[in-house]
Write a structure and sequence with these properties.
Number of domains: 1
Distance between the termini: 13 Å
Order of helices and strands: EEEHEHHEHEEHEH
CATH superfamily: Alpha/Beta hydrolase fold, catalytic domain
Largest sheet: 8 strands, mixed
CATH class: Alpha Beta
Strand content: 15-25%
Helix content: 25-40%
Number of helices: 6
Number of strands: 8
CATH architecture: 3-Layer(aba) Sandwich
Strand order of the largest sheet: 1-2-4-3-5-6-7-8
Length: 252
């Protein structure tokens, strides 16, 4: 565990060369530390998302979380920007991937970040993490209860014009999926479809579905929270990141 941490807002270059805020949380030391890009949920670049980044940093994993809704309401609270994005039907996929690529490049140039980098997301951020990994060479992607990975029908929109699953051949790293048995989006049938396609493509993946848990079951500030499943999922997620990205310096 890393008792000494640094957490701060920095500016990174995202899609189209735009400069956007990003939240960095990492152990206070020279590293290099296994590193991840964290993609926040649709509720935005908020307190709970930043808490996830700090908790990972406490576990010895360096994180950068780009503010994906920044352009919707520059200078406004994250909740305002998230609401604007939600009313607009979300944010453009290409912009999200560009911002994620900017966060990836930011980590690649930090002396405290290791060469192995993953991407992690919750809810819409899980879908976006999967999508980003189809074109950015992440070493692993962790998607937690991510809807619309296998989008069809009305889920295909001008902002999200393709199903991320249709691009899965581009994934270079491994995939961990964390799901709830009672979640309708993605449903167990959706999870099975995603897993079958990854198997067909020869992509290394592990899916873990938790019983008595639905959507956002790891969010401890919601009624959806299921403590037993959340704790088990956290242990599994942390073990996965360490196995795929390497040990922290203190583990060596």
């Amino acid at each position: 565990m890393s008792e000494d941490l640094i957490a701060e807002v920095v500016t990174i270059q995202g899609h189209g060369g735009d400069w956007i805020p990003a939240y960095v949380a990492r152990p206070l030391g020279p590293g290099p530390y296994p590193s991840v890009v964290v993609l926040h949920h649709r509720d935005g670049w908020d307190k709970s998302s930043k808490e996830v980044a700090r908790r990972l940093a406490w576990e010895g994993i360096a994180c950068v979380m780009p503010h994906l809704h920044h352009r919707e309401a520059p200078g406004q609270p994250s909740a305002v920007a998230a609401e604007v994005a939600l009313k607009a039907g979300g944010i453009p996929d290409d912009r999200c991937v560009g911002d994620t690529a900017g966060a990836y490049e930011y980590l690649r140039h930090q002396p405290w970040a290791s060469e192995r980098i993953g991407v992690l997301g919750y809810c819409s951020g899980g879908r976006q993490a999967f999508l980003a990994a189809t074109s950015i060479p992440f070493d692993t992607v962790v998607m937690c209860y991510s809807p619309r990975v296998n989008a069809k029908g009305d889920d295909i929109t001008p902002l999200s014009p393709v199903a991320p699953l249709s691009l899965a051949a581009g994934i270079q790293g491994t995939v961990l999926g964390i799901f709830g048995q009672e979640d309708p989006r993605p449903s167990p049938a959706d999870v099975a479809e995603i897993g079958a396609e990854l198997t067909r493509l020869g992509k290394e993946h592990t899916f873990r579905t938790f019983e008595n848990a639905g959507h956002a079951f790891m969010a401890n500030d919601r009624t959806n929270y299921r403590v037993e499943a959340a704790n088990a999922a956290w242990v599994e997620k942390l073990a996965w990141l360490r196995s795929q990205l390497g040990p922290t310096p203190t583990d060596a």
